[in-house]
């Protein structure tokens, strides 16, 4: 679909893009003297991806802002226009003729398409509005026998905190009740005791950084105030579709913590100082305790680690860990077949397989026959050229996410064999490969689900003849 103009004049003004295009053109000056060249990129409000070679600073000097001033100024001009238009991100491709005539195409955005990463190509195509990958839909399993740890001691906890924080201002019962009403869950008794001793407001410290450090040491973390408490459910742990689809929720029978993305029973109350969130866990694993303290890593999207059996243990420095010893060995729910991992699809196949990735491969193309009929297989990603017959995908009736190269998608589209079970899809395209054919395939896929298309806005201008 092609739209000749965007609604905001600054975005649809060729002059807005001209500095960026000139920088990209300079990278291909020799080629441009003899023929038309194509340049492409992506610019968003928070960053950009352009195929530019940046100058190295002189030996002994670190890179400075001035070293890329021209690039930064050119990009900021576009970013300002994006902000005026209320657009977060846009990719583009341009054909520049030797005499300077230029046809610029702005690609998107579309509410059904996630931005690509580092290239002008579209990211995941959201085929079912509002639908989330399976791990993000998973709720905690009930743990009817779970109880607070024997170490949870309200009197000891309060006495210890008051000794360590003699001048702290505690929260009122009304403030605690307001936090519970906002969260929609009752705070566990240990957490209430903690906030009755200190409400952890920065203004109470009078900008005294040393006092803040002492408070962190007293509690065992950087404590949130009551207004900053939040439920660390799956929605709080955003992850792009193509990555989330390759995750799996696995909880062992002897686990202290359920291997979830998030839980309505995880109440985040602090930070470890490194960006990892601490939470009280009201939905523990089969061997866990109600009210145990867990940590959610900012580098991971699934699971949490046990920190302490209780908040009392955390404050007293008695840290815990998952029990050791031999564990039941199970085939992985997520399997990767490539030159460095599993040697075949047969080696990956088992009834519990949920996600299969076929990566860089130096052997003959692979058949999907070994995974046909597997009851839980929901994700397939295949590097271009690795499949012997893409039409075998039609036999994988439970797929919710599929990522293929353009040629394999072309086979499925021409045969009318795109699985209708899909909720999201992705096209594997590399580097600055021409974005227009990729966008065309993306729009064909979106059309099958009657989803909003990636709109092309065509702008024409003249960059002049190179000096």
Could you walk me through the main structural features you see in this protein, from its secondary elements to its overall organization?
The structure is a single chain. The protein is of the alpha/beta class and 467 residues long. 25% of the residues lie in helices and 18% in strands. It has helices spanning 14-26, 29-32, 69-85, 134-137, 154-164, 173-183, 189-197, 209-219, 241-244, 311-316, 345-348, 406-415, 435-448; strands spanning 2-3, 37-44, 47-50, 89-96, 101-107, 125-126, 222-223, 230-231, 266-271, 277-281, 292-296, 305-308, 334-337, 355-358, 379-382, 401-404, 424-427, 456-462. The radius of gyration is 27 Å and the shape is globular.
The main sheet comes to: 6 strands, mixed
* Structure classification: alpha/beta
Overall spatial form: globular
Number of helices: 13
State which percent range the strand residues make up.
15-25%
Number of strands: 18
Instruction: Tell me, rounded to a whole number, the average pLDDT.
Output: 92
Uncertain residue ranges: 2-8
How do the helices and strands line up, and which of them pair or pack?
Elements: E1 2-3, H1 14-26, H2 29-32, E2 37-44, E3 47-50, H3 69-85, E4 89-96, E5 101-107, E6 125-126, H4 134-137, H5 154-164, H6 173-183, H7 189-197, H8 209-219, E7 222-223, E8 230-231, H9 241-244, E9 266-271, E10 277-281, E11 292-296, E12 305-308, H10 311-316, E13 334-337, H11 345-348, E14 355-358, E15 379-382, E16 401-404, H12 406-415, E17 424-427, H13 435-448, E18 456-462
Parallel strand pairs: 1-18, 13-14, 14-15, 15-16, 16-17
Antiparallel strand pairs: 2-3, 2-4, 4-5, 5-18, 6-17, 7-9, 8-9, 9-10, 10-11, 11-12
Helix pairs in contact: 1-3, 5-7, 12-13
